[in-house]
Amino acid sequence: MDCEILFEQRGAAGIVTLNRPKALNALTHAMALALSRQLDAWAEDRTVSCVVVKAAGERAFSAGGDVRKLYDLGRAEKFDEQRAFWHDEYLLNAKIKAYPKPYVALVDGIVMGGGVGISIHGSHCIAGDRFLFAMPEVGIGLFPDVGATYALPRLPDAVGSYLALTGTRIGRADAAAVGLVRAAVWSDDFPALIDDLASGEDADAVVAGWTMAPEPAPLDELRPLIRAWFAGDSVEDILARLDLAGAPGPELAAAIRTKSPTSLKIAFAQMQRGGALSFAEAMRTEYRIVTRVARGHDFYEGVRALIVDKDNAPRWSPATLDAVPPADIERHFAPLDDELPL
């Protein structure tokens, strides 16, 4: 049980357990590589009809990638080692998206960043009672990655832009209502659902049989406003609309203004472009962006302020949206000499 990630076969189900509960099951490079290898093996194993991914502990499915490790690597100028994590993580995300067998992610608790990449792209992402989703990367000088360039622009009513720019957390009912998850299932029913999958029953039928009735989604009342507010032509335009709106518009604007200006502009560009990209194109785009972000300023300043020193006072550079050159944002999206091999 000391392993960061556990694998077992139970009947017809290959079962993965993320096993870093004290670290909120944050995804390490070793975990990503191990999961990728095991998925390859199970894809070829005729005795395995589906894969189930779950997590140890009750607080989190996976609260993201191991950001502190990435910060330390960058500070030590070990950029090749740092970049290798994103390279292998993004290839894993693409493997999950194209996996030839049902991939059932049982998501209970916090799911952010890297945890999102190993859950929502599978064929069956299932939300439990404590499900709590967010993509808060712009708050640490990063950007919504692990396939968010593909997934978020495809959400209705500009909800993807809302989530990308604000880092807002949403629960199970909202995630189901906008299509982020395949189904909502009571957490207490997860063991029985796994038993049914292990017996070899059809994954679609099993999930349908345990799916609960739709719950009232708190976000539903706000979605028409989100559609109006976040359909702006720039981050500045969105902020102007929010400033003039009734509650919670000004509160959302204030939250956005605490984020990295460069990250906000990158995220906005992702939301504008991602809807026209294939999954492979989206992942290549993210690899281009992260290669440049890793050599920049704001990622290290954001992690310092929120995770290392915890003073919650990041000093972004540039410090304002109007000081971010459009050419600098375009530079992040430019092709690399060594593209992600997809």
UniProtKB/TrEMBL annotation:
SUPFAM superfamilies hit by this protein: ClpP/crotonase (SSF52096)
Gene Ontology cellular component annotations, sorted alphabetically: cytosol
Coiled-coil residues: none
A single MF term (Gene Ontology): lyase activity
Single biological process term from Gene Ontology: L-valine catabolic process
Protein keywords: Hydrolase, Lyase
E.C. code: 3.1.2.4
Catalytic reaction(s) noted: 3-hydroxy-2-methylpropanoyl-CoA + H2O = 3-hydroxy-2-methylpropanoate + CoA + H(+)
Residue spans crossing the bilayer: none
Location of the Enoyl-CoA hydratase/isomerase domain: 14-333
Protein name: 3-hydroxyisobutyryl-CoA hydrolase
Provenance organism: Blastochloris viridis (Rhodopseudomonas viridis)
Source species taxonomy: Bacteria, Pseudomonadati, Pseudomonadota, Alphaproteobacteria, Hyphomicrobiales
